[in-house]
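User: Fold this; C-alpha cells only.

Assistant: Input:
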Amino acid sequence: MRLAVVSSDGENVNLHLGKGKSVYVYDYDEELSFVEHRFVEIAEDSKHQGSKVLKACEDCDVLISVQFGFKSKMKAEDQGIKLVMDEGPIDEVLKRYIDHVEFMKKDLNI
C-alpha cells in the first residue's frame, strides 16, 4: 500500500490538501518505508488546488491531510485514492492509519 501525507515540514501532517506544496510518500507492506518527497506547484493566493496534489499522488492508495474539500474527495474517488483527515506527527498519523487497516483486516478476516 502506498501512502502519502501532506506536510510543510516533513515531520507533521499540517496542511489542507489544497495547500499541499509538499507531499511525503511511503510504502507499507508489513513495514513502513519512506519513498520520496514530492513538490507540487501551488499558487499561494488561489483556492481549490487539491486536484494538483491528487495528480502528484496518482500512484498512491491513500492521501492524508488535515482537511480536504468536497470536490477533491470526488476527484480522489474517481482516481481510486482514499482521502483521510488526520493531523499530528507523521509517524503517529501513519501508525494510526496502518493500525486501523490491520485491525479491519483481522476483524473482517481479510
